[in-house]
Every structure is written in structure tokens, then in C-alpha cells.
Write a structure and sequence with these properties.
Ubiquitin-like (UB roll), 24% strand, 6 helices, 3-stranded mixed beta sheet, single chain, 13 strands, 3 domains
């Protein structure tokens, strides 16, 4: 019995020792597997840093060479064309063939031709291709007497300048300065000794601003109304609410007054009366004539009576 107990104890001890050795080997394997699992991400990170390989075929290389050659040829061509244009422009701008020989100015009566040429900068003897036509036109339009200008270049060396001037019709005083103005009431330039012209003086009386827009039409109707004198013989014109259009005929010392209401009819009536008394040589006996409300009144010098017609 004792012998069996001893052998069983030995077997039990051997089994415990064997199981302990197996458990130790299992732990070593599991730790080794854990290390392998931990090392796996490191290998993936290293592989992500690898650059992709580039494969260039022989056909693609030949195509690249062909395009490079074409671009080089195009660059050489453009450079040669630009250089040729520069040389051609230099030749034309220095050649005597394009020298300015004739400059004509038409349409100017208020401004001298010499002043126009001096202001626009076009001079004989210079190269016509170097003239900036647009800039020359802008310089002339800056002149207050010029309303519109057109410059035409005719190669090789001719320029034609066509000017449309502002025509002064009256003189008007503003801020103690006398200005030339046109029929529309627009200021042209100050009156000076260099540009003096004998023109009627336009005066604006109380309420005359309302009649100012009608001045241009009044002047046009006056020219066709049949007066025995021209408007240039008028010394002054006054606009006012009470007197309407008042004119002074200086050579006859006659004052004419046209009412603003129905002024066209009034103008025709007073023109007929003035023409009649001028034919009868009675103008010197009349000091003033007024047409308004369909009637005409005259004031004579001899008896001072006022007659109606």
C-alpha cells in the first residue's frame, strides 16, 4: 500500500510540473504573438512612405520632344515677327516719305488758322505717323470757341482739320465780367481786346430768367419776321417779366418791346409797323413801339402822343 501511494504522489507531482511547463510556454507564445501584433503597424507606416514608381514609355518621350520643338519654333517665329515690326515702324517714323507737307483748316472764322495749328500741335516737317489724332482733337475741343472738330490723316503727309465754331450772338455781363454767349444763352468766352466783336448786349431784368430759354427761337423768328434791319444792328436786348423782349435799334434810336405772351404774333405785328414807318421815313419821329395783347402802340417825338395801330 505504501508503495502505491508513493508512485501516485510521484505521478501527480510530474503532472503538476508538466502543466506548469506548458503554461509557461503558452505565456511565452502569447507574449511573442503580442509583440508581432504591435510590430505590424510599424511595418505599414514604413510602407506608406514609399514613392510610387513612374514609368515613361518611348512613345510618350518622343511626343514630349516633338511638343518642345514646336514651342521653340513658335517662340523663334514670334520673336522674329516682333523684331521685324519694330524695325518697320522705326523705318516709317524716320523716313522722309511720311513728312507732313500740307495741313488745311476749314470752318474757322472766329479763330485764326495759326492758332488752331499751334494748339493741336500738327506742324509741317514732322512725321505724320507720330501725330496722335485723337489727342490733337481733344486739345482743340478744349478751346471755348470750338464746338466740334474732326482731323483726317491722308497718307503720306496731309492733314485736313474741319472745325465747327460756337457763334457768339450776344454779350452778357456776369460777375462784373462781359462774356460772349450764343443764341442758346451759353457762355463762350470773356470779351477781350484780342477777340472784340460788336454784338448786342443781353440783359436779364426782373423775371427775365423765364424767357431766357426762348432767346434762340426768338432770334431765329426775328431774322424771318421782315424787319428792315439785321439783329446785329441792335445795341442791346433786355428780358423782363413786364417788358418782355426789349430791343434798342441804335441807328434809329428806336426802342422795341414785344410781349412774352403770344410773342410770335406780336413780333410779326411790330415788324410790319417798323417796315411801314421806315418806308415812309417816319422812323426818326418815333421813340418807342410796343406790341402786346394783339395791339401795337407808338410813341412819337414831336407831340409826345401815343398812337394805337
Amino acid at each position: 500500500m505504501s508503495f502505491l501511494n508513493r508512485s501516485s504522489r510521484r505521478n501527480a507531482y510530474a503532472q503538476r510540473k508538466k502543466s506548469a511547463a506548458e503554461s509557461a510556454s503558452r505565456q511565452r507564445r502569447s507574449s511573442a504573438n503580442r509583440k508581432k501584433v504591435k510590430e505590424a503597424p510599424k511595418r505599414t507606416r514604413r510602407s506608406s512612405l514609399r514613392l510610387p514608381s513612374v514609368h515613361v514609355s518611348a512613345k510618350g518621350f518622343l511626343r514630349l520632344i516633338r511638343w518642345t520643338a514646336l514651342l521653340a519654333v513658335a517662340g523663334v517665329f514670334l520673336y522674329g515677327a516682333a523684331a521685324g515690326l519694330v524695325k518697320a515702324w522705326h523705318f516709317c517714323t524716320t523716313s522722309e516719305y511720311f513728312t507732313i507737307e500740307s495741313v488745311s483748316v476749314t470752318g474757322n472764322s472766329q479763330i485764326r488758322t495759326e492758332d488752331i495749328l499751334e494748339q493741336c500741335g500738327i506742324r509741317k516737317g514732322e512725321n505724320s505717323l507720330l501725330v496722335n489724332v485723337q489727342q490733337a482733337e481733344q486739345k482743340l475741343v478744349a478751346n471755348p470757341w470750338i464746338e466740334h472738330v474732326s482731323i483726317r490723316r491722308e497718307l503720306p503727309g496731309t492733314f485736313v482739320i474741319t472745325v465747327k465754331e460756337r457763334v457768339p450772338l450776344f454779350c452778357a455781363r456776369k460777375d462784373n465780367t462781359l462774356y460772349y454767349i450764343n443764341a442758346a444763352g451759353q457762355i463762350i468766352a470773356p470779351v477781350s481786346t484780342e477777340n472784340f466783336r460788336s454784338l448786342p448786349v443781353l440783359e436779364i431784368g426782373p423775371g427775365g430768367e423765364e424767357a431766357l430759354p426762348m432767346v434762340a427761337q426768338f432770334v431765329e423768328e426775328f431774322r424771318h419776321a421782315g424787319f428792315p434791319f439785321d439783329i446785329s444792328q441792335i445795341s442791346w436786348i433786355r428780358l423782363s417779366a413786364g417788358g418782355g423782349f426789349e430791343l434798342y435799334w441804335e441807328t434809329r434810336r428806336l426802342r422795341l418791346s414785344i410781349g412774352v405772351e403770344n410773342w410770335k404774333d406780336n413780333l410779326k405785328r411790330i415788324a410790319s409797323v417798323v417796315t411801314d414807318i421806315e418806308k415812309r421815313k417816319e422812323t426818326v419821329m418815333v421813340t418807342s413801339i410796343r406790341a402786346a395783347d394783339g395791339q401795337v402802340w407808338m410813341t412819337k417825338t414831336q407831340d409826345g402822343q401815343q398812337n394805337d395801330k
